[in-house]
Write a structure and sequence with these properties.
single chain, 531 residues, 8-stranded parallel beta sheet, 3-stranded mixed beta sheet, 19 helices, 11% strand, isocitrate lyase activity, Pyrv/PenolPyrv_kinase-like_dom, Pyrv_kinase-like_dom_sf, Isocitrate_lyase, Isocitrase
């Protein structure tokens, strides 16, 4: 007996109880449809995927080589194809997630058209994309199982009991395409109540992990742009707490909060923190401000001053009414942000950096782990970095430090194609290849993601096709660059009718109408050309 046959028998007993009115119901067809629709609600998905992430976090704590990864996706189809590819090439989805990028939601999913990453897009587009992603992942399950059921039927007709048993075991042990999504809520889209309401919608759609940053909601900027403004810790803690309440209200007791700090590149704050006594959290935040000592007599109209160690200091206030931090305090502020977030309900950290440098990240994590030994990061392997130039310069600096001759290289021009294939370039590529492994071992990076890679891949592949198709290659550009590769590399979309659900629909029609079903997959279906 197998799980699949057990389910068939249970449904058979149910139909027998219902009598002749249910004679049209085939128990095996019901069992198949149930297997193909394992998750019926977003909350089921959030609960299931949260358990996966918690398990993965514990395994990483025991062995830093067991890090996790994801790619940012902006459409359900892109997420689906990513997971299908992972299963095809790597045989398992274990430790591979999806990332929902606020940047790509703004740039690609807003009704206003393309927008910068400044929280101007509709907040409802975020939970809508989560729901869309899981719809496509569940459809990938349904399609894969439908192909197995077709093979099962063929094996039965052929009388091949060994094949029947093997295929049934594949059905029973089917690995779902449904994986955790780390979902970007930006800076919360408003006050803590707004953050709580949006977090609920995201969780109801299936999100088990919500990433939130410490910027001011109405001044939010992309982490790799200038002009970022942070909030005092108490403001951020209120939003962390709001997200936790949303998880708990919906019964996702093990939901994950990723606290992101943009302090490394944020030199401004909108308001001063409230401080009740020297050394408290508000006082620590204010201690990073760029101030000047003044006397009572020097106070001007409308001046804001802070009393510190018995003296008055005036924070430097800009024309925008923002206050600036002292230069060079970014890393120390990041460390304080991270320790504070973990002490107030966050599970994972995200430090947005200006370059991909393991030792820079590790330096901050080392300080954080003095207070929180199991602190770990989600890290953005950002397309905003020029990875080639950054790592060639890192290697250049290392060679200089080692006393090697670098006269053949111009440090500022290392992106130049003339350096491709040189020893320096090869060493840089090796460091890029090992960046994730080294970052997880040395810098506490539990999860590596690329925020908007599929934005770039969509543009690049479209450029390749357009260049040839509208040029001299004509139709050969599509055939050689797309279809022939799909056929030979086993890309599932070559049978695009099947991928869109045509065969599943045909099977359902047969379930519902029997021999009278009008099916699309007959001899005249041109998809038959693909075997």
């Amino acid at each position: 007996m197998t799980t699949y046959t057990d389910d068939i028998q249970a449904i058979q007993r149910l139909t027998q109880q219902r009598g002749a009115g249910w004679d049209a119901i085939n128990p095996e067809h019901v069992a198949r449809m149930r297997a193909q629709n394992r998750f019926t609600t977003g909350l089921e998905i959030a609960r299931y995927t949260a358990e996966i992430m918690r398990k993965d976090m514990a395994e990483y704590d025991a062995d830093s080589s067991l890090y996790t990864q994801s790619l940012g996706v902006w459409h359900g189809f892109i997420g689906q194809q990513k997971m299908i590819s992972i299963k095809k090439h790597l045989k398992t989805t274990n430790k591979r997630y999806l990332y929902l990028s606020g940047w790509m939601v703004a740039a690609l999913r807003s009704e206003f058209g393309p927008l910068p990453d400044q929280s101007m897009h509709e907040k409802t587009s975020v939970p809508a994309l989560i729901a869309e992603l899981y719809t496509f992942l569940r459809q990938a399950d349904a399609r894969e199982l439908d192909l197995l059921f077709t093979k099962l039927d063929a094996a039965r007709v052929a009388g091949d009991e060994t094949a029947v048993e093997f295929i049934q075991s594949q059905v029973d042990n089917h690995e779902t395409h449904v994986v955790p999504i780390i979902a970007d809520i930006d800076a919360g889209f408003g006050n803590p109540e707004a953050t709580y309401l949006l977090a609920k919608k995201m969780i109801e759609a299936g999100a088990c992990a919500i990433q939130i940053e410490n910027q001011v909601s109405d001044e939010k900027q992309c982490g790799h742009q200038d002009g970022k403004v942070t909030v005092p810790h108490e403001d951020f803690i209120a939003k962390l707490t709001a997200v936790r309440y949303a998880f708990l209200e919906l019964g996702i007791d093990n939901g994950i909060i990723v606290a992101r700090t943009d302090s490394l590149g944020a030199g401004l704050t909108q308001k001063l923190a409230v401080s009740h006594r020297p050394g408290d959290l508000g006082d620590q935040y204010n201690a990073f401000l760029d101030v000047e000592e003044i006397s009572q007599a020097e106070l001007g109209n409308g001046d804001v001053v802070i009393k510190r160690d018995g003296t008055l200091v005036r924070p430097k206030r800009l024309a925008s009414n923002l206050y600036q931090f002292r230069a060079g305090t970014g890393e120390a502020r990041c460390v304080l942000d991270c320790i504070t977030a973990l002490r107030n309900g966050a599970d994972l950290l995200w430090i947005e950096t200006e370059k991909p440098h393991v030792e820079q990240i590790a330096g901050m994590v080392d300080e954080i782990r003095k207070e929180i030994p199991d602190a770990k990061l989600v890290y953005n392997n950002s397309p905003s970095f020029n990875w080639t130039l950054n790592f060639r310069q890192q290697v250049y600096d290392l060679l200089v430090e080692q006393g090697q001759d670098v006269s053949a290289y111009e440090r500022a021009d290392l992106m130049n194609v003339a350096y491709d294939g040189t020893e320096l370039a090869d060493l840089a590529d090796q460091k890029i290849r090992s960046f994730q492994r080294e970052g997880s071992a040395r810098a506490g990076i539990f999860h590596h993601l690329i925020t908007l890679p599929t934005y770039h891949t969509a543009a690049l592949s479209t450029d390749d096709l357009a260049k040839g198709y509208f040029g001299d290659e004509g139709m050969l550009a599509y055939v050689e660059g797309v279809q022939r590769r799909e056929i030979r590399e086993g890309i599932a979309t070559v049978k695009h009718q099947n991928m869109a659900g045509s065969d599943i629909g045909d099977n359902h029609k047969e379930y519902f109408a029997g021999d009278a079903a009008l099916k699309a997959g007959g001899k005249d279906n041109t998809m038959n050309q693909f075997g």
